[in-house]
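A reminder from the course coordinator: this example appears on the midterm review sheet, so study it carefully.

Given structure:
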């Protein structure tokens, strides 16, 4: 399966979700490749840090840029069971090119900064790409939602997503937790650090389940 984590906004958690997903898939014995199409290279950096650590399931990682992303990702998907693509910061050639060949697009959205205009752009882009890749399914994942029980922003944002014809809800709400930043800096998934944050681990299990289900 080709899983793309992308969107039209920077800093929403694409790399966090892509790297955790790849780490969990590898940890479960999966044959997964992480593809970094972002010239900032944060997923590749995570992969390089991970390589230096002992005792972690290896996550091979490659960088692919430009219009050739479709062709190269298709080729790589023939060599790995699963390919997780971390798309660049914003609307980019790489994002569009990867969408053409992806099975699933997941769009992280910060519930606290819910931006209808940006999501409209993504919805329109999905519509265009579905003309070429009709099986593409695009789903919104909420990230960095408040951990405060009285703040209901994720629930409110869910209602807004229902307005978009080409986007659905992944049913995943990831909250703002230091555990995500800590694990990332060590090239790990949140479950792979000493004394894992059980809530973050549970959120990432929910995320993994939304992507791979029982597979
Ligand atoms: N749920 C979370 N809780 C706390 N921090 C988070 C969470 N998700 C992401 N972050 C932090 O927010 C910052 C941006 O996240 P990340 O790099 O995953 O976003 P991105 O969408 O890949 O950004 P870019 O568009 O620059 O590629 C990082 O420092 C990351 O550690
Ligand atoms: Mg990133």
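Designed residues:
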């Amino acid at each position: 399966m080709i899983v793309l984590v992308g969107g039209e906004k920077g800093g929403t958690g694409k790399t966090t979700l892509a790297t955790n997903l790849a780490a969990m898939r590898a940890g479960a014995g999966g044959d997964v490749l992480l593809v970094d199409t972002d010239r900032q290279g944060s997923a590749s950096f995570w992969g390089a840090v991970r390589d230096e650590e002992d005792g972690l399931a290896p996550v091979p990682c490659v960088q692919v840029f430009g219009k050739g992303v479709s062709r190269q990702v298709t080729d790589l998907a023939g060599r790995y069971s699963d390919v997780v693509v971390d798309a660049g910061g914003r609307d980019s050639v790489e994002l569009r090119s990867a969408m053409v060949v992806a099975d699933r697009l997941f769009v992280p959205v910060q519930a606290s900064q819910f931006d209808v205009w940006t999501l409209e752009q993504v919805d329109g882009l999905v519509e265009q790409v579905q003309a070429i890749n009709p099986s593409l399914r695009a789903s919104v994942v909420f990230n960095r939602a408040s951990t405060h029980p009285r703040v209901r922003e994720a629930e409110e944002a869910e209602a807004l997503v229902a307005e978009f014809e080409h986007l659905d809800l992944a049913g995943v709400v990831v909250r703002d937790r230091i555990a995500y930043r800590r694990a990332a800096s060590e090239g790990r998934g949140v479950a792979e650090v000493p004394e894992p944050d059980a809530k973050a681990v549970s959120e990432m299990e929910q995320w993994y389940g939304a992507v791979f289900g029982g597979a």
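The chain has one domain: 2-212. The two ends are 11 Å apart (CA to CA).
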